[in-house]
Amino acid sequence: METSHDPVRTFKVRRRVTTGQAEALQRLLPEYGLDRTQPFEAATVYGRTAPLVLEIGSGMGEATAAMASADPARDVLAVEVHTPGLGNLLRLLEDGGLTNVRVLEADAREVLRDVLPEGSLDEVRVFFPDPWPKARHLKRRLLTAEFADLVATRLRRDGLLHVATDWASYAAQAEAVLAHHRAYEVVSRERGARPVTRFEQRGWDAGRQSHDLVVRRR
Length: 218
Prior knowledge:
Layout: H1 19-32, H2 42-46, E1 52-56, H3 62-70, E2 75-80, H4 83-96, E3 101-105, H5 108-114, E4 121-127, H6 145-154, E5 155-165, H7 168-178, E6 184-188, H8 198-205, E7 211-217
Parallel strand pairs: 1-2, 1-4, 2-3, 4-5
Antiparallel strand pairs: 5-7, 6-7
Helix pairs in contact: 1-4, 3-4
């Protein structure tokens, strides 16, 4: 139960896993998972020095695995709160033999604030966050001015923040928050090479259009 002192939750937790997902979590989390209570040093975690991407909300993991496979020179930290998605992503990482992805089950805001050092990220991806379309739930949306401020402290200079959503009102909110933010400049409103996510496909099937916004840290 939330109290007035609790942070507003920006996601809905889903923990019902399949047998295969449960097996993957038990077997593969020791290899790919991180402990958020431990200091984060990218070179130690990944065994090399490389550009680091934070993916907030990796969903079922298909897009995460595809992008990591296509760009092996960069390391990815996938943060997700939905246990089934983590289990599915772990299986994809093993099947693809990917070594440049680590996963963390946590609230991304806490990871940004408490785990990642300032200036440590080359890119932050926020693909199809929970839209919270009802007016009474708008306060739960992740993309706020405070969130943009926090991300800016963790991005290196010229680092990118890429937001994608299939809710027009959320796209308008992203534009309002980021397009005139003093820490960012808009570089693109195109999807680029981003693969189609499972949630994006559902939006297309429902007749919704995808919107992308990419900004660069000044």
